[in-house]
Amino acid sequence: MANKAKDKRINEIINQLVSIFSVLSQDTQKTILPMIEKAAFMSITLDDLQNDINKNGVTETYQNGANQFGVKKSASIEVYNTMIKNYTSLMKQLTDLLPKDEPQSKAGDALKAFINE
After folding, report:
1. How far apart are the first and last CA of the chain?
2. What are the CA-CA distances from residue 10 to residues 23, 48, 63, 65 (Å)?
3. Which residues make beta-bridge pairs with 71?
4. Computed from CA positions of residues 108, 111, 116, 117, in that sequence, does the dihedral angle turn out positive or negative?
5. 53 near 45, Cβ under 8 Å?
6. The pLDDT of residue 38
7. What is the pTM of this model?
8. CA 75, CA 28: separation in Å to the nearest integer?
9. Residue 96 and residue 24 in contact, taking contact as beta carbons nearer than 8 Å
10. Distance, CA of 68 to CA of 54 (rounded, Å)
């Protein structure tokens, strides 16, 4: 059931991004659709990771054997740090495709609103 809820959230982001990039040619839209799908997945996964980090913190304790234990970065923070870099890079690639001649375009405004959510 959780996967259905996550899929629904991902599809909502996909629809928002498809709408934003609808100003592009049909061929470009078809080409970037996999990028949009990945961006939507990363956006929702980053939200989930952020919630986990807020709930459980950025560190976790570990124990290797009887006498070796300590504190390390949590797995969630490591995944989050890697994914946020990839997400930022992907979003830059996508935004670079938007028309530059209209600084206050509807697509640009919609993308700014999406990013600021």
Report:
1. 25
2. 21, 12, 36, 41
3. 61
4. positive
5. no
6. 98
7. 0.81
8. 36
9. no
10. 27
